[in-house]
Design brief:
Layout (H helix, E strand, L loop, with lengths): L3 E11 L2 E4 L3 H10 L3 E10 L5 E9 L1
Antiparallel strand pairs: 1-2, 1-4, 3-4
Organism: Anaerosacchariphilus hominis
Pfam family, one: DUF4177
Protein name: DUF4177 domain-containing protein
Length: 61
Amino acid sequence: MKEYKYVEVKFEAKGVLFHSASEPKEIINKYAKEGYSYVGFIPTLIDAHGGFRRIDLIFEK
């Protein structure tokens, strides 16, 4: 049976732009070292303008 992990990434306002509070590439590399494969993401919070404010990265093992 496959195992899935969901890791939340938040995007915070920095002036008129948003940036990730944690670096998604670092998270993906960390889980790859643990034997997980990145399979996609789910938006979990979207602002009034359609911008992602929070996503869950999905990993599979």
